[in-house]
Amino acid sequence: MSLPVTVEGVTAEWLTSALAFRFAGVEVTSCNHLAVLPGTSTKVRVALEYNDVGREMALPSRMIVKGGFQDHSELMQDMYRNEMRFYRDVLPFINMNAPNCFYAGADPDRWQSVVVMEDLEQREARFCRAQRSQRYEEVERRLSAMARYHAQTWNSAEFEMGGRFDWVGERFSDWSLEYQNRYLEPDVWAHYVSLPRGAAVSRYLHDREWMVAALADIASQHKGKPVCLIHGDTHLGNLFVEPDGTPGFFDAQVSRAPWSLEVAYHIGCALDIEDRRAWERPLLEHYLSQLATGGVEAPSFDEAWEDYRRDLAYGYFIFAINETRFQTEAVNTAYAARFGAALVDHARVGSGDRKGQ
């Protein structure tokens, strides 16, 4: 169906058409925009009223309409489509706590993809933030949740041609690789490491050649490793916690990858630098035990430790080059500092005889 490309296009009439795919007979009689939340994609919080059919179905009085409604949006079309397919084609089949989705689709004649989901504020969910690092118990529960959906899709036949997830790409291929290479151009990279985030990390991490080599090493070492479906972007801004403490996920950028890419990314983002030093080993042991509980023949701790340490460089790269129209400089700096400290601690910084040690 035709999708709106402006916030103003999110109307009662359009929402009626979108909801009709799953909720026959529902009419949205009123749609008021309560807030517009810009970012990589834009979230429009709407207050809705319904006809008798919608009220009988107990559809929520508020929803979030998420899509590309900004000047940069056309450039992000692959990312939007990937997230839309997570809600439409992945979430119904995996064990992940995420917002209820009422519509997810792409416009065949445009670049736009849109998701209509529940407003988590009505669930009284608490949203995680980069400025508040996590406690041990919070990360432990999050890793348990990750291990469940990792185990569920571990080397799954659904990734093969004709399988349910055959469209899910690798992190170092296709549009994801194109996105990566765009920021490794020498002048682009130099710009980002000149920002406050660059001042928050070791000068060795400004070395573009080291960054290129570190990412190439990750991609090379991933070949032949078991893969699973990963959320793909588990920094704190994409996570929530239920009132009872149950961890939740949104804003997924799913891909097929070894587990270590996701676990290293999350631990690097979530923990205070000193806490990460104290807790990363026991947290990794916990994750591996949860994989085994899920029926997976988990790697040994020594192998897992090496994979975890190597993949920390990917998290650093993401926030070293992340644009301020997607996350504020304060957020990018906080994450870059956490990953930068981890890379120094694990002696995986660039330049000279330090490289690859």
From TrEMBL:
SUPFAM superfamilies referenced in this protein's UniProt entry, alphabetically: Protein kinase-like (PK-like)
Signal peptide extent: none
Annotated Gene3D superfamilies: 3.90.1200.10
Entry-linked Pfam families: EcKL
Highest taxon of the lineage: Bacteria
UniProt name for this protein: Phosphotransferase
Source species: Paraburkholderia guartelaensis
